[in-house]
Amino acid sequence: MRHGNKVNPLGRKAAHRHALMSNLASALIEHKRITTTIAKARELRKYIEPLVTKAKQDSTHNRRVVFGYLQNKESVKELFGPISEKVGDRPGGYVRIIKLGFRKNDAAEIALIEFVDFNEVYNVGKVAEKAGASKRRGRRGGKGKGTDAATAAVAVASGGSTVVSDDASAGDADNSGEQPAQEDTNADNA
């Protein structure tokens, strides 16, 4: 029984499994995406994400720790260089696994594992978002929701009537020119 045993042995002894993970991680760092089985990809994700987190803070100690896992100087340089620069602001989830189907000879389920920030196909919209204003996600409401009600509540609480700012009145004036045209089209449809 495997009660509480969170490691998938992948049909290998411990030393063979560590060597496999080290080689897969080095290949992923070098090529930015690799194709492997689903089971190996899931284990590789657990193996490499802590290493990428360590690479975000460049110190001699972290380089030595990562080298202890990878045993490959070039992979360590690549991880602490371009990869850590791209994932510097990401809080986690550095790799993604995409299922590809089944292998022909043994019907093993195949997956593509890749670094999230190095895929230009998926990141096209996100680059445009980053160029605009940074968005802070909250639990309630969205942009502009409740701002008119909030100003009205403040004005009522202060004992006065609601005061509309110049920007809001200018916006209402612009919309007033557009309103009759929309109402006419609605009247024609009815």
Molecular structure report:
The chain has 190 residues and is mostly helical. It has two domains: 118 residues, Ribosomal protein L17 (50s Ribosomal Protein L17, Chain: A, Alpha-Beta Complex), CATH 3.90.1030; 31 residues, no CATH class. 55% of the residues lie in helices and 11% in strands. It has a three-stranded antiparallel sheet. It is globular, with a radius of gyration of 27 Å.
Give the low-confidence spans: 152-158, 160-182
Sketch the topology as an H/E string, one letter per element: HEHHHEEHHH
Tally of helical segments: 7
Major β-sheet profile: 3 strands, antiparallel
The share of residues in extended strands comes to 5-15%
Number of strands: 3
Cα distance spanning the termini? 72 Å
Helix vs. strand class = mainly alpha
The coarse silhouette is globular
Number of domains: 2
The rounded Rg comes to 27 Å
CATH fold name of the largest domain: 50s Ribosomal Protein L17, Chain: A
State the strand order across the main sheet. 1-3-2
Mean residue pLDDT: 80
Helix content: 40-55%
CATH class of the largest domain: Alpha Beta
**Any guess at the CATH architecture of the largest domain?**
Alpha-Beta Complex
Superfamily (CATH H level) name of the largest domain? Ribosomal protein L17
